[in-house]
Amino acid sequence: MLTQQAQIGQMQGWLAVWQYPIASTDPAMMWMDMPVNGGMPGMATQVQLNELRELQGVKADGLFLQLMIVHHRGGVLMGEAALESAKSPEVLALAQSIVNAQTSEIAAMQDLLARKGFPPVMDEPKETNHEGMSP
After folding, report:
1. What pTM does this model have?
2. Summary mean pLDDT of the chain
């Protein structure tokens, strides 16, 4: 979490220096040039968060890991999109570090899922929003 907070601070600082607004008036994620069903790829739905709140024990562990894997994959997609379109060396370096970190964390979470007896979270088409995921 500290890494993500530091990255957010770094990006907000760049936006301020470059005189860009923190929030765009464009629809969410339009810069990625791919369908994301109205939001950031990998974001859990309210239904999924409610389900997670209701679960206990190993089932809660499993759903949490599944949701976080999908969330991290969304971060990888955004990082890869930035690598394809960004020009600034600073942004390119940050995007690559995000792709590397998120990919490593996905592997660790897949391993935790397996150790808890859950199947791995499979790659899904990039345009899905992961409705109805459950352990």
Report:
1. 0.76
2. 84
